[in-house]
């Protein structure tokens, strides 16, 4: 399914506005419910303004013999993003001023855009520059820049609490695999999984599909205060389709629930991974973690932006990603979410020595050989009783046992049913809410 979706989405010309975004969201909306919200050109979002809407019908460059040298229909990266309409003949000298290449990657078409300053241009493989020998060229850009709308996609699943987990990805790049489609594909599959659990979730889940940077700023300008009140943890889903190892970029605060859960799950997964500090370069974590909002937002990636040579070029294509890697990333996000769902903080109600477990059916009366499952259960029970003091959550205790936090949930519920543990998470959340 993932690669079938990829093949449908890859040719679409996406930008920060336009029909390509709407079409992409509609295709993803066949898998999960995604509402499309439209914001008019000119809408102010802090220091930014929603630009005019951009759509393209065709664009090409022909030489003096009428041969087509560059054609938008062959690869939408050939046209600089947000190119203004143009039709006419230009000299070779003038054309070269509007032609972009990557000398370091001579067989790649670079990704170039000019969102906020009107201009036009084409992008081509550097190795093809020798083809441009004529003195004059016909240039046609049949595009439209007009007052329109910016489109944001949003999905939501209601949990039993008012606390939210926020997942955000972007839908604004044309035909690139890792740096565009891997994020929406993985997020949509995680969304689909959680839909199947609807009615059995502690947290509510919000899924945003935004144009990078200005889209997250626009959403924050409309809903930032609400997110500050409700978001317990969140992740920017991008660059998740390539590489053997995972990369986790911490939130700006570096010690949030999002950070703790991601680093715990990665460590216990046994997968190769690295953890990097937040910095003001990257994706929408820059906006979510900005000083006015300070949302607990990290980013769980694989090979991150800028760390593979094909980044922002036509070489970032289908050959770089695989269904296996995408599915493994989906599962890592599911493990992360299951850990957040399971995580609670408990107090042991029996503090005068150890409680007698066998009379409660929680410990075998007779000694001797025990199965691996029994040994794990006894270990979980005894450690939960020993370390549940109202300040250590399940992830903390799981770290001592070198297991996933979610794997302690069953034993914790059993002890709670027997009155030996008291869940204090809700009380702590209420206190934190009152404080801020």
UniProtKB/TrEMBL annotation:
- Which residues belong to any copy of the DUF4910 domain? 4-343
Q: Which residues form the DUF2172 domain?
A: 53-144
Q: Which SUPFAM superfamilies match?
A: Zn-dependent exopeptidases
Note the InterPro entries from the entry.
DUF2172, DUF4910, UCP015244, UCP01524_HTH, WH-like_DNA-bd_sf
Pfam families associated with the record: DUF2172, DUF4910, HTH_47
Give every UCP01524 winged helix-turn-helix domain span: 345-422
What name does the UniProt record give this protein?
A: DUF4910 domain-containing protein
Protein source organism? Cohnella silvisoli
